[in-house]
Structures are given as structure tokens and as C-alpha cells.
Amino acid sequence: MSLANKHILVIAGPSACGKTTLIAEMLNNRRAANNLLAKLGLDHNLSIGKLTLERLVDSNKLNKKSRKNQVDIALVHFDIFSRYRKARALEFEKVVRSAKSVRLLILYSPFREWLMRMNQRSNYILSVRLSPLSVLKGFFCAGSKGFRPSRKAWIIVMVSRFSKGLGKKIYKYEYTRWDKYWLKYNNILPLYFDSCSGKFFENFPDFD
After folding, report:
1. Neighbours of 177 (CB within 10 A)
2. For 71-85, how does the pLDDT look when each residue is reduced to its tens digit (9 = 90+)?
3. Of 86, 132, 166, 176, which sits 20 to 30 A from 67 (CA to CA)?
């Protein structure tokens, strides 16, 4: 159950790009999981499960005798907009040094699609005529129904309500900044996946 015996598949991207959906699909649909594992050069016969970076670098938690810890391939969720992204990056570096292998799948969402998803989650619909109070709430609050976006993601959403062009620039900057971070690990070649078109890319896709 040690980290040295595990293959790690990090699925990275901003809030609302489809990380949670993809991980759930892989856990519930083995055929879909096998197709993706083949793309990444991983043995589809190995067991898979979702683990956190915190657990992977905590030997006490990882060595506990539980079914969760016994998986051969650990699927890891990495939100590049999270307020804890710096802590996750430090944990990622420990994983790279100790794991049997590390694969990186970066989910890309075109800005317009990402912004639409974020506005839907915050119950802010531009095409619907709302009361002044509803507009104010949707403009300055993070919505309802438990939606709590990260500060970075919400800043981009808020900026985009004044200037979509500026919001897109910040969105692109965050992606490219993290892209430089991933590429410093020469032994890990990232694979990019457009969550809208379903296409894979070996190089970072152009922004729309």
C-alpha cells in the first residue's frame, strides 16, 4: 500500500472544467476508464480508485488497511484555482519523487463554456430578466445551493461581468502559469483533454 507501489494519475484543471465528472465516470464505467488509461500508457487491468494528495503523502493514512488504499492506480483531483493550490503543489512534488509513476491529464474548457458553467452554478443567467435584488445577489454573491467557488475562480467570473476580454486573459494566464509548472518535470509528459469536444492534445490547445 506504499506510495512506491502506486501509479498516480493527476487530473488537473480549474473549477467547473469537469474533473469530478471525469473521475466519477472512470470509477463507474470501466470501459471508459480503460480507454483513458490506454491513452496514458497505464495497464487497464490494474485497480483504480480516488485518493487525495494529502493521503498519498501521509504514510500513516496510506498504510491503513482499507480497500481505498489498496488500489494500484490512484486518481487525484487537482484544482488549479483552489485556495489550497500551493499546498497541493508541495504534495504533488513529494508524490513525483516517491510514486511508482505519475501521469498528468489536464482538462481544458474553452473560456466561454467555463464562464457559462460558473454562471449557471451561481444562478446568474444573463439572458433572463431578473429583479434588481436578484441581479445584485447574482453579481456579487457566489449563488446558492451550496455553491462555494474558489476565490480565484470567482474573481475571474466577477471581472468577466465587467469585461469578458479581461476575464479571458486572467483565465488564460492561470492556465499557462500552471502549464509552465507542470513542464518543469521532464519525466512527466502532460496530456491535454478538451472536456467540450472530447479531443486529446499532446500540446496545450489554443484558447478560443
Report:
1. 10
2. 999 999 999 999 898
3. 86
